[in-house]
Design brief:
Layout (H helix, E strand, L loop, with lengths): L1 E8 L4 H19 L10 E8 L2 H4 L5 E5 L4 E7 L2 H6 L2 H19 L9 H20 L1
Parallel strand pairs: 1-2, 2-4
Antiparallel strand pairs: 3-4
Helix pairs in contact: 1-4, 1-5, 4-5
Amino acid sequence: MIFRTSSEQDVLVGEAAQAARKKVKDVLAEILSEVSLECGAETWSFISILMRDEWIGDYPEVKRYHKSRKVIEVRVQIPIYEFKEAGSAQQVELMLDAVYRSVDMMAQIKSLKLSNGDAQVLRESVEKARVLLRAA
């Protein structure tokens, strides 16, 4: 499985969000490179959303499956002020929490047909990344 990341972020978080997202992406991409899901999805596109309270309504959480491209797209909100005040290790944790939560969101996509086994593999991959990033 291919793991891709992107973000919709306010300038308040600056390069910190990019740094945290890159750390998570690098580790998860490696872990997921050997994963094959029963549901047939081949790419997990995770988009983090870090926006001020007054703008967050314009950036809703999204979960969809692009069946023809076999891409799961999940856009997840992360509390911007908590993120901004956190140290770099905690920012990575917040990013991982959002990635983990995106698996629960995927399970709600009817067209994806994500099995419990697939969801468990993805959750375990996120937790493995968490362990590796804490040790780094």
